[in-house]
Prior knowledge:
By secondary structure, the protein is an alpha/beta fold. It is 34% helix and 28% strand. It has helices at 17-28, 43-53, 61-64, 82-91, 106-119, 133-143, 173-176, 180-195, 288-304, 315-332; strands at residues 8-13, 33-39, 57-59, 72-75, 95-99, 123-126, 150-160, 201-210, 216-225, 230-239, 245-252, 255-259, 263-268, 271-274, 336-337. α1 (17-28) crosses α9 (288-304), α4 (82-91) packs parallel to α5 (106-119) and α5 (106-119) runs antiparallel to α10 (315-332).
Amino acid sequence: MNAREGAMRTAVIGTGAISQVMHVPILAEHPGVDLALVSDLDTHKARTVAARFGAAETAEPARALVRDDLDAVVICTPSHLHEEQAIIALGAGKHVFVERPLALTPEGAARVVDAARKSGTTLVVGLPHRFRPEASALRSYVAGGEMGKLSSVRGVWLNRRVPVMRPTWRQNPDLAGGGALMDLGLPSLDMCLWLVGYPEVRRVGCITTPGDFGVEDAAVLMAETVDGVVLTLEVSSRYFSGHDHYYARVMGSDGSGSLPPLEIYKQLGGRPLDVTPRQPRPQGFENPYTNAYRRQLDHFVRVASGVTQASLPDEQVGLMRLVAAAYRSAATGGEVTLSGD
C-alpha cells in the first residue's frame, strides 16, 4: 500500500487477536491514516500481519515507540505494558491510543495522564462502548434530566466459558491486573459511570470467585456514589449459555433506560411511555462492536489531526481507584470507603 499524502503515520504495537480483528484492519483502510509500521516482540507474527494489511515495515516495540518518522502509536500489548509504553510514546511526542486498562493501578493511570498533559499530545483509551449510538442516546437522556432523580445503574457482562488449555498472560494477576473484574468489569463500570456523568464513588463492596489459574472468573460489586446512586455490577467469564450476555440499565424517579437493545421509558400522563429514539444501522450492516471500534479510532484520528478536541481521560484514574478498592474489598471481606482514600 502506498503512503497516503498528508495522512497520520501510525504504528500499531502488539499483534494479538483484538489488534488483528479491529485496530490494524480499521486503520489500514482509514483515509487519514498511513499504517506505516506493525510491531511485536514476535517478529515473524509482526511481518505476517504487516504483509496482510499492507503496512510498510516492522520494528521491535522499543524502537517503534520513539521513531521520529511516526505521528501516532496504537498500543494493543498485554495490560502490564500499557503504562510504560504509553509514557515512552507520549514523551517522544506521539499521539497515543492505548487499549484498556490505561494502567494496572490508579497511580499508574495518573502518571500516563500527566505524561499526556506535559507532552500536549493526544491520549485516548480504548473504550468503544462509548461510541455505540444507543449508548450516546441513553447518556443524552440521562444528562437532560429526562429520567428524574437517578436511583441506580447496573452493568452485567457474562461471557461464555472458554476452556483454557494453556495459561497466558491473562491468567497471571501480575500481568493482567486481575481476572473477570479487570477484563470485563472495568469496561462495564466505565459504561455505567459514563452513562450517569461519572460521579464520585463513596464506598464499594465486592465478592470475587476464584478461577482455575490464579485470577477470579466472576465478581459481584455494589457501590454508592456521593449523590446516593447505587451502582451494581455482575461479571463472569464462566457463563453457561448459548451466547454472551451484556447490558446496562439506568433507573430514575421518572423513567428508565437499558441497552442493548436500547429501550427508554418515561412516566407521562401517569403511565410509562416508550420514548426510545430510532437508531442508525451501521454501514453495510457491520456488527455494532466493530462499528463502535471504527467510530472510536476515527475519533482518535480526528483529535490527533486537530479536527476536533477531546479532554484527557482523567476519569480513568478514578475508575482504577474504584477497581483497586473493589479488589481490596474482595480480599478483606469488608466494605471499602473511597472518600479520602
